[in-house]
Amino acid sequence: MGRIFERELKGILRAEEDMLDRVTKTCEVDERKAYYRIRERPFMVVRGAGSLGVDLVAIRSDISLPIEVKSSVNDVLRFSRSEKLAIQAHEMMEDCRRVGLMPIYAFRYKRHRGDAWRVFTLDVGQINGRLKVVYQRLPKIAPSKDGNLIMRWHDGMPLSKFIDYIVTLSS
To answer: Residue 131 in 3-state DSSP?
Structure first.
């Protein structure tokens, strides 16, 4: 099931017209316009392989984004419910910290009308260059009092706003 949403996000970031038409069908006018801005600065998107690697890598001349795609019928995703999720997040955080990349978690809320995607990042410390401004604006996945990561869909940045922001930033 998760592969469906990986393909959906890949199509959006590649600015595939049929995918943009489909995902914006129930969006508000301003959300739809923001989604279509990706046509100005699309990404080359590669699907990752392996269970503990990243799902997608979005690349263009000024930004490289390792992306982990999550989807749920619930609006909260608790990493403590799966050891695999917790290990995956820790490894992604460490890898991105080591090489200076900003990790992206894209959370698709199933059966939601409108912009169903929310974007987050992990707290990896200092990010430099063009990504620094984007990193500072993105919500971080919050740890619980027990230190386990929790992704709350309502706390994320709508994908439409993220797209609008990164296209404007590179103009």
So the answer is: helix
Maximum distance among all Cα pairs of the chain, rounded to whole angstroms: 44
Separation of CA 25 from chain center:
20
Distance CA 133, CA 121 (A): 13
Residue type, 40: E
**Chain centroid to CA 128: how far?**
19
Q: Classify 132 as helix, strand or coil.
A: helix
- Strand ranges inside 11-90, DSSP E: 44-47, 56-59, 64-72, 76-78
Question: What's the structural domain count of the chain?
Answer: 1
Domain that holds residue 163: 2-169
148 contacts 86 by C-beta, under 8 angstroms: yes
Q: What is the pLDDT along the chain (171 residues), one digit of tens a residue?
A: 568 999 999 999 999 999 999 999 999 999 999 999 999 999 999 998 665 579 999 999 989 999 999 999 999 999 888 888 889 899 999 999 999 999 999 999 998 999 999 999 999 988 988 789 999 999 999 888 888 899 999 999 999 999 999 999 887
Q: Report residue 94 as tokens.
A: 């460490």
| Residue 31: CATH number of its domain | 3.40.1350.10
CA 14, CA 69: separation in Å to the nearest integer? 16
